[in-house]
Design brief:
The complex is a heterodimer.
Chain A (H helix, E strand, L loop, with lengths): L5 E11 L5 E12 L4 E5 L6 H8 L7 E6 L2 E2 L6 H10 E4 L13 H11 L6 H14 L16 H13 L5 E5 L7 H18 L2 E5 L3 H7 L2 E6 L2 E7 H6 L4 H9 L5 H6 L7 H4 L7 E4 L5 E4 L1 H8 L1
Parallel strand pairs in A: 3-8, 3-9, 6-7, 7-8
Antiparallel strand pairs in A: 1-2, 1-4, 4-5, 9-10, 10-12, 11-12
Helix pairs in contact in A: 3-4, 3-5, 5-6
Chain B lengths: L7 E14 L2 E14 L3 E5 L6 H8 L7 E13 L5 E5 L5 H7 L5 E4 L3 H4 L6 H12 L4 H14 L5 H4 L9 H13 L5 E5 L7 H18 L2 E6 L2 H7 L2 E6 L2 E7 H6 L4 H9 L48 E2 L5 E2 L15 H15 L3
Parallel strand pairs in B: 3-8, 3-9, 6-7, 7-8
Antiparallel strand pairs in B: 1-2, 1-4, 4-5, 9-10, 10-12, 11-12
Helix pairs in contact in B: 4-5, 4-7, 5-7, 7-8
Classes of the chains: A alpha/beta, B alpha/beta.
Chain lengths: 306, 362
């Protein structure tokens, strides 16, 4: 098997809110992303999925654990070279395309900013070329480079966000809820675009979302998060065909299916951590077949798989 | 006296609304017709900006100040206390009259974001009691008892203690339950839910939808759902109205819309949403984006994005063609002279799959 592109081990991220109160957003999460694959992170709000993405790309300083990207440790203090590698090879697409684009900059300059910082061109003609090429790649016209973000629709703005991430030719793109702010018909356009780009550039995605049907569609492997713990991970088939953890089961049962006769009769499975008697801190990772593994104690595993 | 369908409790007829904006007049609602019958659930589906919220806001007098109702009626069958019935056009009532006779007591609304629709400085109990005290002539102790009953009805455990809590002390799902309790406080006949679960997680969404269904079955009220999520529609609705660019372009009962859709836009919406079995390489997507209603589209508003558009679509707007007693669609493809067009193969395969699955339950 090839070396993973990103190795996350026991990542922990705590936020100290006051002297007596610390938010434990992420608690010992581990997973790998291989080159060219899409890893989906799902979970409800507050489960820590966005925090994980932001810790990996160092928008936060992880409290503990290790993140190895292209063979280099990227937690703690970074030397110049590692930082440069991280900033070039890992990019992010944000949720809200309006607030993540500088309203006072032209779209061309937004996309070209990374090129400017890293001196990726010899002449301004080369820079303009790279920007036009990027714009046409994401389905916009090169003439759009002269416009400002507010002149675009939501779907087009998200394309600009994708172009900005892609222009550095990254190996890993963290897509944080990048389609949830868009309309259904536009979501499909953006997802198709992301798939096309993956086919042509071979980049890997960390796809963070709460929409399970979309995650299932785009991801090769999935990690299910709850309250900052990775409760279950595996390939998309493993998770969907054979969910083991009660939280995963509840999550899957809650996805509304566009089939009225079926949907009307289906009841979602309720799951309440407090009353379930499960203690995530006691659980350890239990591998099942393949890459499928669950966070639980031996006794819980026996009960769930019985 | 206005004409009204026998069984309908609320009927919107030819509603036409425009907004004055700095950029010009936006013709947001262009002739909407909608029927709601007693005890039924009707869903309005559409993309953002299609006019689904504006339509129902007109019914409860919540239109913004720059809105003008150009034409149309919103008829409501009012049942007076002595049992007599009369038909009122809600658009002829002033805001004050609406407030005292209709809003809350007859038609109640649940909004998208439970945090902004609750008062952060008032306890939950007070907020639930407020509506009861306002609309019913009861003393405080009765109102309190009723509030407790309502909180229990919407599945809030330990209601007695929760009465004293403030909104920020509750989770999003709990808050939305409180909002529903408030909406139900004065026994409305119609509950309008404007994207009631969009701000919530899927697990909580499922619980809230099941709750609304359960409450509806127990109290026999009518519900209008506004949503962009077809999965939600499949779960709750009896009838579906698909809206596009200020018009209802397809209407039918839920099975007709999901198993036999006729309008290319509905095809597009269904195909764009992967179900859990979709494994095609690409999602079918609707190209382009919705039209800007600042500039009134000529002909069919959907023509520019429609792969099946005919020449006539660019010139004449299609009327509603009848498919069955309950199913209508506004597309020229249903005209007897139109070329025979089939829906995209992937979608046809998917619908076949869902029908098979559904048969297991029939």
């Amino acid at each position: 098997m090839t070396e993973p592109l990103l190795k996350v081990r026991d990542l922990t991220q705590h936020f100290r809110m006051s002297r007596t109160f610390t938010v434990k957003a992420v608690n010992g999460v581990s997973f790998d992303i291989y080159p060219g694959e899409t890893y989906g992170l799902v979970g409800e709000s507050g489960s820590g999925k966005t925090t994980i993405g932001r810790s990996i790309i160092r928008l936060y300083n992880p409290t503990a654990g290790s993140v190895v990207f292209e063979g280099k440790e990227i937690t703690g203090k970074l030397d110049r070279e590692t930082e440069k590698m991280l900033r070039e090879d890992m990019q992010m697409i944000f949720q809200d395309p309006m607030s993540s684009l500088n309203p006072r900059k032209k779209v061309g300059d937004i996309i070209g900013e990374g090129l400017d910082i890293h001196h990726r061109y010899a002449s301004s003609a080369e820079r303009d070329n790279a920007i036009s090429e990027m714009l046409s790649k994401v389905g916009l016209s090169p003439a759009h480079a002269e416009r400002y973000p507010h002149q675009f629709s939501g779907g087009q703005r998200q394309r600009v966000g994708i172009a900005r991430a892609l222009v550095m030719n990254p190996k890993l793109i963290i897509a944080d809820e990048c389609i949830s702010a868009l309309d259904v018909s536009i979501q499909a356009q953006v997802v198709n675009l992301m798939k096309d780009i993956q086919d042509s550039t071979g980049c890997a995605y960390l796809f963070i979302a709460h929409d399970l049907s979309m995650v299932k569609y785009i991801s090769d492997r999935i990690g299910v998060l709850h309250l900052g713990y990775m409760v279950e991970t595996g390939t998309t088939e493993e998770i969907f065909a054979n969910p083991v953890h009660p939280y995963t089961k509840s999550l899957l049962s809650a996805v509304p299916i566009p089939n009225p006769e079926v949907e009307k009769r289906r009841k979602s499975i309720a799951y309440d951590y407090k009353t379930s008697g499960i203690d995530y801190t006691k659980g350890t990772e239990h591998p099942l077949e393949g890459t499928h593994s669950v966070l639980c104690t031996d006794e819980e595993l026996a009960r769930w798989t019985a | 006296m206005a004409e009204m369908n026998e069984k309908a409790i609320l009927q919107i007829q030819d509603l036409d609304i425009s907004f004055r904006t700095n950029a010009g007049v936006v013709h947001a609602i262009r002739g909407v017709n909608l029927d709601l019958q007693r005890g039924e659930t009707v869903a309005i589906v559409g993309e953002s900006g299609s006019g689904k919220s504006v339509t129902v806001k007109a019914a409860v007098g919540l239109l913004d100040a720059n809105a003008t109702v150009n034409s149309g009626k919103i008829l409501y069958r009012n049942r007076a206390e002595d049992g007599s019935e009369q038909i009122i056009d809600l658009l002829t009532l002033s805001k004050r009259e609406l407030r005292s006779t209709i809003n809350g007591s007859k038609i109640a609304m649940v909004f998208q974001d439970p945090m902004t629709s609750l008062d952060p400085t008032m306890t939950i109990g007070k907020q639930v009691m407020e509506g009861i005290l306002l609309h019913k002539k009861v003393d405080k102790a009765t109102a309190r008892a009723r509030a407790l009953e309502l909180l229990e009805l919407v599945g809030i455990t330990d209601a007695e203690r929760r009465m004293k809590a403030y909104p920020h002390q509750m989770s999003g799902g709990m808050r939305q339950r409180v909002v529903i309790a408030i909406a139900l406080a004065s026994d409305p006949e119609i509950l309008i839910c404007d994207e009631p679960t969009t701000a919530l997680d899927v697990t909580i969404q499922a619980r809230i939808l099941e709750l609304i269904k359960d409450v509806q079955a127990r109290l026999g009220i009518s519900v209008i759902y506004i949503t962009h999520d077809l999965g939600v529609v499949a779960k709750v609705a009896d009838y579906v109205n698909v809206m596009y660019a200020g018009k209802i372009i397809e209407v039918g009962n839920v099975n007709e819309i999901f198993y036999e859709p006729k309008h290319p836009y509905t095809w597009g919406l269904l195909a764009a949403m992967p179900d859990l079995e979709t494994d095609d390489d690409r999602l079918a997507s609707i190209p382009g984006s919705p039209p800007n209603l600042l500039h009134e589209p000529k002909g069919d508003a959907f023509a520019a994005r429609n792969a099946y558009a005919l020449k006539i679509d660019e010139k004449v707007e299609p009327p509603m063609f009848k498919v069955s007693e309950t199913h209508y669609a506004a597309t020229w493809l249903l005209h007897p002279d139109a070329p025979k067009v089939e829906m995209p193969a992937e979608l046809a395969a998917r619908l076949e799959r869902s029908k098979k699955e559904a048969e297991r339950y029939l």
